[in-house]
Amino acid sequence: MKLKLDENIAASAKPRLSALGFDVDTVLDEGLGGRPDPHVWTASQAEERFLVTQDLDFSDARRFAPGTHHGLLLVRLPDSEQWRIADYLVAWFAAPDARTWQRCFVVATPNKVRVVRPAEPGRPD
What we know:
Blueprint: E1 2-5, H1 13-19, E2 23-26, H2 37-46, E3 50-53, E4 72-75, H3 85-94, E5 105-108, E6 113-116
Parallel strand pairs: 1-2, 1-3, 3-4, 4-5
Antiparallel strand pairs: 5-6
Helix pairs in contact: 1-3
């Protein structure tokens, strides 16, 4: 699974997620830091990468409907937990279910991971 970490994700997460077997790239490595969200999104999708971000501009599940992209994880941590973001990411992505998140809209908090999957053909939403 190919991941792209947004600039609001600690750089320390990259080697730790790579150690779990993920192909990890970052917005900063690509020189996209400070670029508008549409540029980050376009780059992520062009590379078929699952975007990991804390940016609430990516929080609209209708705009980023499951199945219409390569995957999106919106991380929602309180300020007091920001220093642990890499720990949370490692825990979430170490779970076997994480490898099924491609093309999904995922919201993760310290207490819960909510995965919205693409609708299955012939099955009501």
